[in-house]
Amino acid sequence: MNNKKTFTFEEIFNQNERRIHYQIHRLNINDPHKDFYQEGLCAMWNAYEKYEADKGPMATYFNYTIRNRLIDKIRKEKHDTKHAADSIVISEAEIDDGNHLKMNGNTYPIVGYSGLNGKDPYLWERLKSELTENQWKWVNLYIMHDMSVKAIADQEETTVDAVKSWGKQVRRKLKDSEFRKRISWNLEL
User: Fold this and answer.
1) What is the pLDDT of residues 161-172, one digit of tens each?
2) Could you tell me the fold of the domain covering 96-182?
3) 51 near 5, Cβ under 8 Å?
4) Interhelix angle for 9-26 vs 58-95, to 10°?
5) Of 97, 42, 104, whose CA–CA distance to 69 is shortest?
6) For residues 74 and 27, is the Cβ–Cβ distance under 8 A?
7) pTM listed for this prediction
């Protein structure tokens, strides 16, 4: 058994298949789709191909290779799961970027900004003079430069909730008719 040239892989497989099951059981892996079994089988094949008799017993090498490949697969799946979860969180943050009013379990879009005239620099200057620095950052980056709340938070090194708060404050001001008169902005709400 120490010389791979005298035994075919089928013979080695028949003698050592239980090693795969043993390692799966030992690592407490739930394998309903046999993905880990297949990974163990590939590891056994690679071990069979790379085995050198003068380096030690084949059984030890099989155990080592199978176990480490299964552990690598566990780590990869955890990484992929975490990456998918992070992507979901980012997507939800972009979808729920503070432009919705939630009341009684329902979500209503907040009045859009289609009435903003991007070609009137005086309107923007008047608006800027009436807002705090952070509120203006939100107007400039979110409305004028169409950045996501997450991107603004990353750029300004703050939280997504803080950026959402800036936007809520701006919206509150824009809904106030006295505020709109001060900046000479006539918008039908």
Assistant:
1) 999 999 899 888
2) Arc Repressor Mutant, subunit A (1.10.10)
3) no
4) 50
5) 42
6) yes
7) 0.47
